[in-house]
């Protein structure tokens, strides 16, 4: 019924299972799990006004007895089923809203919520400008930014969300508002890590900075050099004089039929080859391949995309701990011991990745109005530990999931034994069953829950949008006992005020 209403309201922008546009949209998801979900219809809004119409229809429908679930799809790079697609409901495919523009003085980039980072970098590279953004060009702007976002520029400018100066967002009421430091500032703060819990963001305005070419690429070598790589990584991650122009991704992998290997992604956001901060890796010889060069951000992120092509089954999960060489080594050997569990899985690629979160990143949040992630400089240098699994068959889902969960539990136990655990789970790498928003800490969760009750008093984006990671229900069900005012003046994009009261 809602699909018909949307189709009548937005002629030519709604596709059904018998339409080629519907099939094409599903085929463009990153993971098989998302591609194989069949919504009742897919709507492709072209403007924020279109989005407001769709939300208005869905809000009215969900106010009745028969709920209509819906999903919000940006780039479609989430891995697990239902993250950005929904069975027997309405999937809102935002990819037509992908415009990238820069203001007259070159200080702000306005980016449509359906854009990929490739779209952004193609525009900004030509202008010798940049924004902190994704490290893989095929990833969508919306999902990465709303989950916090880590960038090659993060040591200089913080998480991607720290650099959003304004969100244009459609609320559950169908109203389009701006959220920034001056207007709806509580919503602005909640969106910095808040995922899809508060509305549908239609535009992100990010601060730009001058940027020319950068140095970077991938170096591949034999896994026998893992101890040296772990030492080099640990020294880099814990450096007291961390070079804020540097960024590193350390990968160890097993690929069925090929065996083991290791790959470093090294980036330096100046056109300087082999800077001293990466000296620890220079002794790892011989290497199989070395693609490091001075080039554009577009080129570097396109290279990263080739590591993870579309069309396969995917499973990502992660944890975080305080940076420590012995713990990194333990995590590595736990991963290697787990390989036998999945080595016979068809099409298996089983990779352990370490990414530093130095104080250089976490210290930038407060300078930009804060965020909701719960990390501060007092946490010290952290290591993000990611497990990525690619494979072919649905029949292997349980084995892959159970192996991954068991490994993460073992790594967390090792961290806790050493007193080095962290509650932070990076939302963009989290798996079903993990609770990344709870890891932001009670004060942030309470504040975000109050924001949800104020801007979405009916709970539309908690009840009717099952995908992604929701706010803890206990706090959502509370009234104003959290101490936060749940009656808010919401400033619309036209500058007028509307008062919403949570009952």
Write a concise synopsis of the structure shown.
By secondary structure, this protein is an alpha+beta fold.
How would you describe what is shown here?
The chain has 503 residues and is of the alpha+beta class. Helices cover 30% and strands 23% of the residues. The protein has 17 helices and 21 strands. The protein has helices at residues 2-9, 20-27, 32-35, 48-62, 117-125, 141-146, 154-157, 185-191, 226-237, 279-282, 297-305, 325-342, 359-362, 397-417, 442-455, 460-463, 473-477; strands spanning 14-15, 41-43, 70-73, 90-93, 100-102, 108-112, 129-130, 164-170, 176-180, 200-207, 209-210, 214-221, 246-255, 259-268, 289-290, 293-295, 313-322, 349-357, 382-391, 487-491, 497-501. The strands form 5 sheets. Strands 12, 13, 14, 15, 16, 17, 18 and 19 form an 8-stranded antiparallel beta sheet that branches. Helix 5 (117-125) packs antiparallel against helix 11 (297-305) and helix 12 (325-342) packs antiparallel against helix 14. The longest helix has 21 residues, at 397-417. The two termini are 29 Å apart. The model is unreliable at 479-503 (pLDDT under 50).
**Sheet of most strands:** 8 strands, antiparallel
What Rg, in angstroms, do the CA atoms define? Answer: 22 Å
State the separation between the terminal residues, measured CA to CA: 29 Å
Low-confidence stretches: 479-503
Q: Could you estimate the helical fraction of the residues in percent? A: 25-40%
How much of the sequence is in beta strands? 15-25%
Beta-strand segment tally: 21
Task: Give the helix/strand class.
Answer: alpha+beta
- Overall pLDDT score: 93
Task: Please tell me what the overall shape is.
Answer: globular
Number of helical runs? 17
């Amino acid at each position: 019924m809602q699909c018909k209403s949307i189709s009548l309201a937005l002629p030519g922008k709604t596709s059904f299972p018998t339409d080629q546009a519907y099939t094409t949209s599903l085929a463009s998801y990153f993971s098989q799990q998302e591609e194989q979900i069949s919504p009742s219809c897919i709507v492709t809004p072209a403007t924020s006004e279109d989005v407001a119409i769709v939300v208005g229809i869905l809000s009215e429908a969900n106010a009745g007895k028969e709920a209509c679930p819906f999903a919000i799809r940006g780039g479609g790079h989430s891995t697990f089923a239902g993250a950005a697609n929904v069975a027997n409901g309405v999937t809102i495919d935002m990819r037509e809203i992908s415009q990238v523009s820069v203001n007259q003085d070159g200080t702000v980039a306005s980016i449509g919520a359906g854009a990929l980072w490739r779209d952004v970098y193609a525009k900004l590279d030509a202008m010798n400008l940049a924004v902190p953004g994704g490290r893989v060009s095929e990833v969508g702007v919306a999902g990465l930014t709303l989950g916090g976002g880590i960038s090659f520029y993060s040591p200089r400018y913080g998480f991607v969300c720290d650099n959003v100066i304004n969100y244009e967002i459609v609320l559950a009421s169908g109203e389009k508002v701006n959220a920034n430091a001056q207007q709806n500032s509580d919503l602005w703060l909640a969106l910095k890590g808040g995922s899809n819990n508060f509305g549908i963001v239609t535009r992100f305005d990010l601060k730009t900075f001058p940027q020319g070419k950068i140095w970077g690429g991938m170096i591949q070598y034999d896994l026998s050099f893992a101890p040296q790589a772990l030492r080099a990584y640990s020294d880099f991650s814990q450096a007291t004089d961390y070079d804020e122009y540097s960024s590193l991704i350390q990968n160890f992998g097993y690929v069925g039929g090929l065996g083991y290997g290791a790959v470093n992604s090294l980036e330096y956001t100046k056109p300087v080859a082999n800077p001293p901060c990466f000296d620890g890796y220079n002794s790892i010889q011989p290497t199989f391949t070395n693609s490091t060069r001075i080039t554009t951000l577009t080129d570097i992120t396109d290279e990263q995309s080739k590591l993870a092509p579309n069309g396969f089954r995917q499973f990502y999960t992660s944890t975080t701990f305080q940076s420590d060489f012995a713990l990194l080594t333990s995590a590595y050997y736990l991963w290697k011991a787990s390989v036998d569990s999945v080595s016979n899985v068809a099409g298996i690629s089983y990779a352990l990745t370490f990414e530093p979160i130095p104080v250089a990143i976490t210290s930038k949040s407060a300078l930009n109005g804060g965020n909701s992630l719960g990390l501060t400089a007092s946490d010290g240098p952290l290591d993000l530990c990611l497990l990525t699994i690619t494979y072919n068959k649905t029949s292997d889902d349980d084995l892959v999931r159970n192996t991954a969960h068991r490994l993460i539990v073992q790594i967390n136990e090792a961290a806790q034994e050493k007193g080095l655990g962290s509650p932070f789970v990076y939302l963009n790498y989290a798996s079903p069953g993990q609770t990344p928003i709870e890891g932001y800490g009670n004060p942030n969760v309470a504040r975000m829950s109050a924001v949800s009750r104020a801007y979405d008093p009916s709970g539309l984006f908690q009840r009717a949008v099952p995908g992604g990671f929701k706010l803890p229900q206990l706090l959502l069900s509370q009234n104003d006992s959290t101490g936060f005012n749940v009656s808010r003046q919401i400033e619309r994009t036209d500058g007028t005020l509307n008062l919403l009261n949570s009952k």
